[in-house]
From TrEMBL:
Key word Hydrolase present: yes
Protein name (record): 6-phospho-beta-glucosidase
Sorted UniProt keywords: Glycosidase, Hydrolase
Similarity section: Belongs to the glycosyl hydrolase 1 family.
Active site, renumbered: E375 (nucleophile)
PROSITE patterns documented for this protein: GLYCOSYL_HYDROL_F1_1, GLYCOSYL_HYDROL_F1_2
Source species: Isobaculum melis
Any single biological process term in GO: carbohydrate catabolic process
One cellular-component annotation, GO: cytosol
Length: 480
C-alpha cells in the first residue's frame, strides 16, 4: 500500500515565479536579440493587437509603450532581489532563460557567451543563498527572427534550433540546476497564442502542427537532460482551469468534458503519457487536421516523457451551451459564463481556491506523477502609503485560501505535490496587459505604467506573511 503524506512534506519547495521578458529589462544589452515579447506593446489592447495579422512585427515607440524593455531591471539588480528572496526563505526560484540572450536570432552558429555568463551569475547567486533554481527553457520569448523569417513554430526547422539552444544551456548548467521546464503554458497554443507559438491568427492545422513540433522539441530536451545528468528533473508546464458544467444539463456536462480534455488534458497527455490520446485523434479527423509526423518522432515522444507535471492556476471556468446563459466571464481568457458562486478580481478573474484542490486531485489521479504549482496569484492595484508600504491583506487572503486547499489535497487526497511558486513574487510587467499597475508581488517596485519611479524595492505586508509560511512549512497561515 502507498503511504499517504500528511501536510506539507519535508523539503517542500516554497518559492516564487517570474519570466525573463517580464522583469529582466536590458532588452538589447549583453548581445541579446529581439524576441516576440519585445515588440508586444503595453496597454489593455495588447492581446487584441498581437492577434491581429495587421499588427507589424516591429517596435514603434512613436505609437506604443514597451514597459518590458526596462522591466524592473532585474538584469542589473539581481543580487539585491535574490537577497530579498532569501530573506523570505525561498527554497526555489522559478525563472526563465531568454532564448535570444543565448542565440540572438535563434539560428546563430554560435551562442552568445555574455548571455550564458549572465545566467551563470544569476544561478550562482541563487545557489549562494541556498535557493534551487527552477528554469523554464522557453517562456513566451521566441526570438523575433524565427517568427519573421521562419513563420514561428509551424515550421519544423524550429525543432532543431530549439534542440541546439536547449543543449547549449543544459550542457552549461546541468551540474548546477536540478529542476527544469520545457515550454511555459504550452496548451495556450490550442487557442492560437502568439506568445506560445510565435504565430498570429492561423488555421487549426497550423496550430496543432506547431504544437506537435513543440512536443518533439520538448522530448529532445528531456532526452538531452537525462543523458547529461540522470538526477535532473524536467517537467512540462501548462495552464489549468478547473472546468464546471453550469448546471446538470447533460448537454452542458458533455460540452464541459469536451472543452476540458482538449484544453486541460491534451498537452499533458502527450508529454506525460507520451502519445496522442484517442479523443485528440478524433478531433483531428473531424477538423481535417493532418500532422506532419516524421519517422521516429512518436517513438521519441513515448520514450522521453517528463518527470513531473507543473501547471499555473489562476481561475476556473463554467461552461454552458444554453444561449440564455449569456452573462460571460469577461476576465476569463478561457471563455465561459459567470459562475454565480464565485467572486472576481479587479481584472475579472474568478477566484476559486477549491478549484485548485480539484485540479490537484484531477491531475494526480490522471497521471500519477509529482506535481509542481508553478504559478498562482492575485493581480491587484496596490496602494502604498507615504513610506511605500502596502497593506495587501487581499493578497494574503487569496494565497492563504489556495494554500489551505493544497494542504487538503496532500493530507486528505494523497496528492504528491512538491513545489509552490506564486507568480510575480516581485512586481513585474503583466503578460496579458503589459502593465505595472497589475501587481502580484510580495515586493513593491516603485515604477508605474509610464516608466516613472525610482525602481526601489519595498516589502509589502505579504512579504512577512509568506516568510512565516515558509519558515513553518505551511503550518502557520495566520495573517498577524
Amino acid at each position: 500500500m502507498t503511504e499517504l503524506k500528511a501536510t506539507f512534506p519535508k523539503g517542500f519547495l516554497w518559492g516564487g515565479a517570474t519570466a525573463a521578458n517580464q522583469f529582466e529589462g536590458a532588452y538589447l544589452e549583453g548581445g541579446k536579440g529581439l524576441t516576440i515579447a519585445d515588440i508586444s506593446p503595453g496597454g489593455k489592447e495588447r492581446m487584441a493587437l498581437l492577434r491581429s495579422n495587421d499588427y507589424p512585427l516591429e517596435i514603434n515607440e512613436a505609437k506604443y509603450t514597451y514597459p518590458n524593455h526596462v522591466g524592473i531591471d532585474f538584469y542589473h539588480r539581481y543580487q539585491e532581489d535574490i537577497a530579498l528572496f532569501a530573506e523570505m526563505g525561498f527554497k526555489t526560484f522559478r525563472m526563465s532563460i531568454s532564448w535570444a540572450r543565448i542565440f540572438p536570432n535563434g539560428d546563430d552558429a554560435e551562442p552568445n557567451e555574455a548571455g550564458l555568463q549572465y545566467y551563470e551569475n544569476v544561478i550562482d547567486e541563487l545557489k549562494k543563498h541556498n535557493i534551487e533554481p527552477t528554469i523554464t527553457i522557453s517562456h513566451y520569448e521566441t526570438p523575433l527572427h524565427l517568427v519573421k523569417e521562419y513563420g514561428g513554430w509551424k515550421n519544423r526547422q524550429l525543432i532543431d534550433l530549439f534542440e541546439k539552444y536547449a543543449r547549449t544551456i543544459l550542457e552549461r548548467f546541468h551540474k548546477k540546476v536540478t529542476y527544469w521546464m520545457t515550454f511555459n503554458e504550452i496548451n495556450t497554443g490550442i487557442l492560437g497564442s502568439f506568445f506560445t507559438l510565435g504565430m498570429r491568427n492561423e488555421s487549426l492545422q497550423n496550430n496543432f502542427q506547431a504544437l506537435h513540433n513543440q512536443f518533439v522539441a520538448s522530448s529532445k530536451a528531456v532526452k538531452i537532460a537525462h543523458e547529461l545528468n540522470p538526477d535532473i528533473k524536467i517537467g512540462c508546464m501548462s495552464i489549468y482551469a478547473t472546468m464546471y458544467a453550469y448546471d446538470s444539463n447533460p448537454d452542458n456536462v458533455m460540452g464541459m468534458v469536451e472543452e476540458n480534455r482538449m484544453f486541460n488534458y491534451f498537452c499533458n497527455d502527450v508529454q506525460v503519457r507520451g502519445e496522442y490520446p484517442t479523443y485528440a485523434l478524433k478531433y483531428f479527423e473531424r477538423n481535417n487536421i493532418t500532422l506532419d509526423i516524421q519517422p521516429g518522432e512518436l517513438d521519441l515522444m513515448k520514450e522521453h516523457t517528463v518527470d513531473y507535471l507543473s501547471f499555473s492556476y489562476y481561475m476556473s471556468s463554467a461552461f454552458s451551451k444554453n444561449p440564455e446563459h449569456s452573462d460571460k466571464s469577461q476576465g476569463n481568457f478561457f471563455g465561459g459564463v459567470k459562475n454565480p458562486f464565485l467572486e472576481a478580481s479587479e481584472w475579472g478573474w474568478e477566484i476559486d481556491p477549491v478549484g485548485l484542490r480539484i485540479a490537484l486531485c484531477d491531475l494526480y489521479g490522471r497521471y500519477g506523477v509529482p506535481l509542481y504549482i508553478s504559478e498562482n496569484g492575485l493581480g491587484a492595484i496596490d496602494q502604498p502609503d507615504a513610506n511605500f508600504y502596502v497593506t495587501d491583506d487581499y493578497r494574503i487572503d487569496y494565497l492563504r485560501k489556495h494554500i489551505e486547499e493544497m494542504e487538503k489535497a496532500i493530507r486528505l487526497d494523497g496528492v504528491d505535490l512538491f513545489a509552490y511558486t506564486p507568480w510575480g513574487c516581485i512586481d513585474l510587467v503583466s503578460a496579458s496587459t503589459g502593465e505595472m499597475a497589475k501587481r502580484y508581488g510580495f515586493i513593491y517596485v516603485d515604477l508605474d505604467d509610464e516608466g516613472n519611479g525610482t525602481m526601489n524595492r519595498y516589502k509589502k505586508k505579504s512579504f512577512d506573511w509568506y516568510q512565516q509560511v515558509i519558515a513553518t512549512n505551511g503550518a502557520n497561515l495566520a495573517n498577524n
